[in-house]
UniProtKB/TrEMBL annotation:
Keywords, alphabetical: Copper, Copper transport, Ion transport, Membrane, Transmembrane, Transmembrane helix, Transport
Family: Belongs to the copper transporter (Ctr) (TC 1.A.56) family. SLC31A subfamily.
Membrane topology type: Multi-pass membrane protein
InterPro entries with a match to the protein in the record: Cop_transporter
Subcellular location(s) of the protein: Membrane
Gene Ontology molecular function terms on file: copper ion transmembrane transporter activity
Taxonomic lineage from the root: Eukaryota, Viridiplantae, Chlorophyta, Mamiellophyceae, Mamiellales
Highest taxon, organism lineage: Eukaryota
Residues forming coiled coils: none
Descriptive protein name: Copper transport protein
Length: 176
């Protein structure tokens, strides 16, 4: 069975195939299967193809910034709602974890804001995925570095529970 028509060509033996055609004359364009380490890469649009080292460095700086912003956006989007500040005197007498107030549905404005941030988060995630799919080694390393720096600047700064095992949930603390 001839599948040459799937690649923009005509059926073997048909017009324009040269009579003995088949698929051996066709140029198949697919995804690369190994990292390419050159400075030529096309990100997102044909008009954004890097031809010089300077263009490539600008593209990498853009990717780095996008990745840091992606992690920062995730950090901002997942911040818990503001809670009333407590003084150390109020906290000293507490021996059990503080339980949250009863569940309450957030206001429409907060839900819309959260949805907009989620949409931006999705867009940046897919743009990063598309960049990695170019299989350019420099782009891949830049994405990993950018996401790592973004994590360091954002999520890694969140306070963690200490002295309570692996979980800060009251039901999961060992020995209770």
């Amino acid at each position: 069975m001839d599948h040459s028509h799937h690649f923009g060509g005509e059926m073997a033996g048909g017009a324009g195939s040269g009579g003995g055609g088949g698929m051996h004359n066709m140029h198949m364009h697919g995804m690369p299967v190994a990292f390419e380490w050159g400075h030529r890469v096309t990100l997102y649009f044909d008009s954004w193809a890097t031809e010089t080292h300077f263009d490539y460095i600008v593209a990498l700086l853009f990717m780095f910034t996008l990745c840091v912003m992606q992690e920062g956006l995730y950090y901002l989007r997942t911040l818990p709602p503001k809670v009333r500040a407590q003084t150390t005197e109020e906290i000293e007498g507490v021996t059990a974890p503080i339980l949250p107030a009863p569940y309450k549905t957030p206001a429409l404005r907060r839900r819309l804001w959260g949805t907009a941030l989620y949409a931006l988060n999705l867009c940046s995630s897919y743009l990063i995925m598309l960049a990695v799919m170019t299989c350019n080694g420099g782009v891949f390393l830049t994405v990993v570095l950018g996401l790592s720096v973004g994590h360091f600047l954002g999520k890694s700064r969140r306070p963690i529970a200490t002295g309570m095992g692996e979980s800060s949930e009251a039901c999961c603390i060992e020995g209770q």
